[in-house]
């Protein structure tokens, strides 16, 4: 397994010889504008992709499939809809397949539970995008597990830590777990993705897995930055298997 974080939740996962682009937010810095209920006027995304437009197009030409966890614009933006080949295999939870088809994509692989694509077993997982009223407003979210004979990689997606994530780890026994950190929070309610404390809980629940932290320093409602999360990881002596990825960084095992 190899992956490269591009920015926020956007990454390329390489399994065998297949490259899968996860949650593409491909627009320029500021292209999504101001997010409501954040308590600031910052323009999203806060940073550009770690390569120029020509390099981006070259990288997209190498992608074998796209996987989308949910439809929030920091995971699936207008620029992605514009740049991606409309016939590329597009893996997604069944609940969002119709919406994606409206953007002109013709090769949608809708997943209700589990299927096999190119000898990779792909399962949809549950998530919880916050608590209480905020969770209701954020809507239903999912993640993916990608399995081969040798490896299992769990993309948690936009979720807090709760018993459902523990259950998915117990079920799939992933060697690598990719979480959305940053404790994104609106002006009301609790965090809608994982806090540093949540990330430590993931590590404790999966003592043999590598935990990779993404979704950092790219959108305006995230409250915890890389330095803070790295500090908490060190305080818990988990730096040998919990990694805070930088934009553009490649991780492999």
Commentary on this structure:
The structure is a single chain. By secondary structure, the protein is α/β, with parallel strands linked by helices. Helix 3 links the parallel strand 7 (90-93) and strand 8. It has a single domain (2-247), classed as Ribonuclease Z/Hydroxyacylglutathione hydrolase-like (Metallo-beta-lactamase, Chain A). The model has no long low-confidence stretch (mean pLDDT 97). 23% of the residues lie in helices and 28% in strands. The chain is globular and about 45 Å long. The protein has a seven-stranded mixed β-sheet with strand order 8-7-6-3-2-1-16. Strands 9-10-11-12-13-14-15 form a seven-stranded mixed β-sheet, with helices on one face. It has a two-stranded antiparallel sheet with strand order 4-5. The longest helix has 10 residues, at 163-172.
Describe the structure concisely for a colleague.
With 253 residues, this protein is of the alpha/beta class.
Chart the SSEs and their pairings.
Layout: E1 2-7, E2 10-15, E3 18-22, E4 33-34, E5 43-44, H1 53-61, E6 65-67, H2 78-83, E7 90-93, H3 97-101, E8 108-111, E9 114-117, E10 120-126, H4 132-138, E11 142-147, E12 152-157, H5 163-172, E13 176-180, H6 196-205, E14 210-214, H7 226-235, E15 242-244, E16 250-252
Parallel strand pairs: 3-6, 6-7, 7-8, 12-13, 13-14, 14-15
Antiparallel strand pairs: 1-2, 1-16, 2-3, 4-5, 9-10, 10-11, 11-12
């Amino acid at each position: 397994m190899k992956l490269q974080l591009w920015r926020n939740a956007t990454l390329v996962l390489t399994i065998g010889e297949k490259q899968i682009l996860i949650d593409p937010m491909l627009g320029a810095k500021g292209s999504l504008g101001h997010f409501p209920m954040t308590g600031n006027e910052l323009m999203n995304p806060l940073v550009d992709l770690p390569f120029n437009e020509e390099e981006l197009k070259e990288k997209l030409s190498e992608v074998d499939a796209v996987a989308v966890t949910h439809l929030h614009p920091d995971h699936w933006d207008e620029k992605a809809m514009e740049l991606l080949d409309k016939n590329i295999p597009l893996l997604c939870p069944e609940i969002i397949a119709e919406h994606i088809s409206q953007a002109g994509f013709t090769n949608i692989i809708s997943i209700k539970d589990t299927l096999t694509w190119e000898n990779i077993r792909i399962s949809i997982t549950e998530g919880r995008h916050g608590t209480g009223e905020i969770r209701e407003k954020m809507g239903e979210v999912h993640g993916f597990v990608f399995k081969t004979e040798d490896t299992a990689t769990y993309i948690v997606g936009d979720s807090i830590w709760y018993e459902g994530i523990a259950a998915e780890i117990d079920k799939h026994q992933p060697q690598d777990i990719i979480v959305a950190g940053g404790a994104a929070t609106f002006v009301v309610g609790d965090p809608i993705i994982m806090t540093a404390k949540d990330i430590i809980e993931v590590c404790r629940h999966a003592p043999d897995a590598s935990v990779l932290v993404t979704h950092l320093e790219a959108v305006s409602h995230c409250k915890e930055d890389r330095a803070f999360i790295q500090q908490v990881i060190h305080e818990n002596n988990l730096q040998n298997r919990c990694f805070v990825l930088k934009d553009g960084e490649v991780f492999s095992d």
